[in-house]
Design goal:
The complex is a heterotrimer of chains A (368), B (276) and C (299). With 368 residues, chain A is an alpha+beta fold. Chain A is built from 14 helices and four strands. Classes of the chains: A alpha+beta (368), B alpha/beta (276), C alpha/beta (299).
Chain lengths: 368, 276, 299
């Protein structure tokens, strides 16, 4: 009963904080710099940005540093920080055709308007250790940088591209885009009361935990569901952020955010009006996180299919099941809370068990 | 004397429906699917009365709309249009103008339903007695001792061994599950009972015993019953008056003996002769 | 994970406003509290901001307390009845950091707002006091119905028969109602609440109290209330009385008493000491301390 012995919890907590600090300092050489986290672990950093739901690259790096590299904890720092900030305004809706693209692929077509662009991806790298990285020096980085810029051909490619799906839409194989001016559901200001609109579904998944989204989407891909996706287009790049000018009200560019976007095409459905068309799933998140964007698109489709058919057959199709369980901050917190003292409730549990055992004994005494 | 149940022009269309749904479907068109909009006309313009203490049969093949009709009256489904009034202790309830809470209340205390599939009428994860307790609790019986006694008596009355009252109905035979459902339906002393294909899928000997049980219970309590079935034997055994449905329409109604001996509609003649 | 000492030394004062949350969030919380008080026992949804303490550690209670605290308030925080258990200490440190001017106390009678996890203080609360509960599961119907949309409808029409069926099944299996804590309690004759994981011992204190009880579920994003002088009845059968924990010594047939203050009328923590004996001690530390003080004064 060590918990009972902790009288003076404040000292214990202070002690724990000192150990945490010592852990990251002792024998660790120079303190890691925020730029090193951002530059050398951009994918981990991306994950924190997207799950934190706040695009603040520098604070995301600080969060990783302060949380000793725990991505769930780091995302949590950004969320908590966000709670203290008032809302200053809203951006206009963005067209991702305006993205400065660093990578785009389509699994649907061999070639696409503007061309496939593999960009930075570990997809086709062998997972074989490069043991020389164990001993890199600053000069190695300088050499790599010199080689990259030195051999780089003059920029002759465009940086923005049309959407692959536009071709399918022009042919009528996809449902036409409907103009919808409904303000999006704001999950930071409104609790999810089901049923919720698709914008709430997308917003919740956009800051969902990568592993949680992946597990649920994977269950659908494996057979607990039947989305059967084709990646119509996956793109990674930088999206200019447009906000209304405070005086003129006209949209002006206020910066850019790195975004991963995935559009999946799923099997066609019969429609009420006219010929059958393909169906779509959409995924997007801050930073470079392709697995998350694809998983989100699959789940978006899975939930929509069930809603259209009016019957939920698998967990991944149930909006309540998916949306209430993919948030890393909530699920991690609740899992962690079981470490806290529960001895009052346990006392009550023992009381009930003893009473039930007494009754059982009485009953067996009577029958004997 | 006012009928216990008065159903007027009840209609249920699945799908978006159009102006021509009713005129383009029915027995004379040999379909219940509207050729103009593809909607399914499950029930169209059904009107009938159920008198106090009467057992009324609703007969037809699957897809004739007979189950849809009963589902609406038990609030499992909403009608597209039409009206039904339930006369309870001299007070008339306009069923489809009640709010959800009022409908629940009426259904929990003053109606009983026995489904063909016991898993619809019973919770398989709670004991047989618990299933009956639930109905009693819904009608505000909060004495544990009384609930136990009533459940035991109801199960005994429907010939379920009291020793099995604390077992899960999941482990019961089909016939026994139907007995528990009947006990549950009877538990609040509701004056109106709906029976939807209650003997379908059971062994013949079990069927006969359940029908006998229903007959006895009806004679004892005078409960009014609406019996949905495709089985002429059930109609003959239980009912005094019968309605015949096809493609959502009532095509014939009258005394059961008359309908079985001297059917008027060609379809009924076919039904009756095919069973002989 | 939250080094309170480094936070205190760091930028907290400069970067964070009074009571941490932005003012819009506090206004929303206060509106939600009003609604909860107006509809006793009804779970009112609210946005629920992320706190810098993990979900499940009392973020719902913290948001309520932060929205309630003003400079003249005096706050007490308890967990398992004690002021100095780790979680209580941590939350109190956070209030001290973010609510300059607010005073803290361990005395039940000295606090205007008390935030608690799992207990209601032994000392009856006054009409000028508010007790804020940390709630892990706000909905008692989750025991019998997983679908949230369906549960809302069931609450609306006070459709609780399935909860009673659970009691029935308990009686059948054990001849006892085995719900030990989080005992479903009917408020003002309509809504049934989950009173948070308080022991059954504390449930009767909810009934017709002088103080206001507020319940905050941060992760599940619900707030509900038991206002002063409101009926709060634990659900049971007419012929099966609701019982509370008894702490009877089975060898003597008498009630165990607190090893510190000798109380025989308080909720006790039971634990093995180093010699392997079971010992009992008041769970409410402030209550136990105040009894000891009185005894010492008398000697």
């Amino acid at each position: 009963m060590a918990y009972v012995a902790i009288r003076g919890g404040e000292e214990a907590i202070a002690g724990s904080a000192r150990i945490m600090d010592a852990l990251r300092a002792m024998g660790a050489g120079d303190p890691i710099e925020l730029d090193q986290i951002t530059r050398q672990m951009p994918l981990l950093h991306s994950r924190v940005l997207s799950e934190g739901g706040l695009y603040h690259p520098r604070l995301a790096a600080l969060a990783l540093k302060q949380s000793l590299g725990d991505s769930l904890e780091a995302a949590f720092f950004l969320r908590a920080y966000r709670s203290t900030k008032p809302r200053l305004g809203e951006t206009v809706p963005h067209d991702t055709r305006a993205m400065r693209v660093t990578r785009r692929v389509s699994a649907a077509f061999k070639d696409i308007p503007g061309g496939q662009m593999l960009g930075a991806t570990p997809d086709y790298l062998h997972r074989l250790f490069r043991f020389e990285l164990m001993d890199e020096g600053a000069e190695t980085f300088q050499q790599i940088t010199r080689d990259w810029f030195g051999n780089r051909p003059a920029a002759h490619r465009p940086t923005t591209f049309p959407k692959v799906l536009d071709t399918l839409r022009d042919e009528g194989l996809l449902p036409p885009l409907e103009e919808d001016d409904t303000p999006p559901f704001d999950i930071t200001r409104t609790p999810l009361i089901f049923p919720v609109p698709r914008s709430a579904q997308l917003a919740t998944m956009a800051r969902g935990e990568t592993g949680g989204l992946l597990a649920l989407a994977y269950s659908n891909m494996r057979g607990y569901g039947d989305v059967h996706p084709t990646v119509g287009e996956l793109r990674v790049g930088y999206l200019p952020v447009m906000a209304p000018h405070p005086v003129t009200g006209k949209p002006v560019e206020i910066g850019e955010v790195q975004v991963t976007e995935c559009e999946i095409v799923a099997m066609f459905e019969k429609t009420d009006e006219g010929a059958p068309v393909f169906t779509l799933g959409y995924g997007a998140c801050f930073g470079h996180n392709e697995v998350k964007a694809i998983a989100m698109a699959v789940l978006d489709r899975a939930i929509s299919v069930a809603a259209e058919k009016g019957s939920i057959k698998n967990p991944s199709e149930d909006p309540e099941f998916v949306l209430l369980h993919v948030d890393g901050i909530e699920s991690m917190g609740f899992c962690t809370h079981y470490k806290m003292p529960h001895y009052v409730t346990f006392q009550s549990d023992m009381d009930r068990l003893r009473a039930a055992r007494d009754k059982a004994e009485e009953a067996s005494d009577v029958s004997n | 004397m006012t009928p216990i149940l008065n159903v007027e022009n009840l209609t249920r269309i699945h799908g978006k429906g159009c102006e021509r749904c009713l005129e383009a479907t029915g027995p004379e068109h040999d379909t219940n699917i509207c050729p103009h909009c593809g909607s399914v006309v499950a029930v169209a313009d059904a009107s009938f009365r159920l008198h106090r203490g009467e057992v009324l049969g609703i007969m037809g093949e699957s897809g004739s709309g007979k189950s849809s009709l009963v589902k609406m009256l038990y609030f499992d489904d909403q009608p597209t249009s039409g009206r039904a009034t339930y006369d309870l202790d001299g007070q008339s309830h306009d069923l489809f103008s009640l709010n959800e809470a009022q409908q629940r209340r009426l259904r929990d205390t003053a109606m009983g339903m026995v489904y063909q599939n016991p898993s619809l009428g019973l919770n398989f994860d709670i004991s047989a007695g618990g299933n009956i307790a639930e109905r009693l609790l819904m009608s505000d019986e909060l004495r544990y001792g009384v609930i136990r006694e009533k459940a035991r008596a109801l199960l005994a009355r429907t010939e379920v061994p009291p020793a099995r009252m604390d077992e899960l109905p999941r482990n019961f035979s089909g016939g026994m599950q139907q007995r528990v459902q009947i006990a549950r339906a009877l538990s609040t002393g509701a004056p109106l009972l709906f029976l939807d294909e209650v003997t379908t899928g059971l062994d013949l000997s079990v069927q006969a015993r359940i029908l006998d049980l229903i007959m006895e219970l009806q004679e004892d309590s005078g409960v009014s019953m609406l019996v949905v079935t495709h089985d002429l034997g059930v109609v003959r055994h239980l009912t005094t008056r019968t309605i015949v449905m096809k493609y959502g329409r009532i095509i014939e109604s009258g005394l059961t003996d008359q309908i079985l001996e001297d059917p008027q509609a060609a379809y009924t003649q076919q039904l009756v002769s095919s069973a002989l | 994970m939250f080094p309170t000492d480094t936070m205190a030394q760091g930028h907290a004062g400069a970067e964070y406003g009074f009571a941490f949350l932005d003012e819009d969030a506090k206004r929303e919380l206060r509106r939600t509290i009003f609604k909860a008080v107006c509809i006793p026992g009804h779970q009112v949804p609210y946005a629920s901001r992320e706190m810098p303490i993990a979900r499940g550690f009392g973020t719902g209670g913290m948001q309520l307390t932060l929205a309630l605290l003003g400079p003249r308030d005096c706050v007490k925080v308890i967990d398992q009845g004690a002021d100095d258990s780790v979680n209580a200490a941590n939350i109190r440190a956070f209030f001290a950091l973010t609510c300059p001017g607010v005073s803290g106390t361990t005395l039940t009678e000295g606090a205007s707002v008390i935030q608690t996890r799992h207990r209601i203080p032994e000392l009856p609360l006054r009409k000028d006091q508010i007790l804020v509960f940390q709630v892990p599961y706000p909905d008692p119907l989750v025991l019998v119905e997983p679908n949230a949309a369906m549960r809302r409808r069931m609450h609306g029409r006070a459709d609780y028969a399935r909860l009673w069926v659970k009691l029935y099944e308990d009686m059948v299996a054990f001849d006892e109602i085995t719900i030990s804590h989080r005992y479903p309690t009917r408020i003002n004759g309509h809504y049934i609440i989950d009173p948070s994981p308080i022991p059954r011992y504390d449930v009767p204190k909810l009934h017709q109290a002088d103080c206001l009880y507020l319940f905050g579920a941060g992760r599940e994003k619900r707030i509900y209330a038991v206002p002063p002088h409101t009926d709060a009845i634990p659900i049971t059968f007419a012929d099966v009385p609701f019982t509370v924990e008894e702490f009877i010594d089975r060898t003597t047939g008498k009630r165990h008493c607190c090893r510190r203050c000798g109380a025989t009328d308080s909720f006790l923590d039971e634990f093995p000491d180093d010699a392997g004996n079971r010992v009992f001690q008041c769970s409410d530390a402030a209550w136990c301390d105040s009894r000891l003080t009185v005894q010492e004064a008398a000697e």
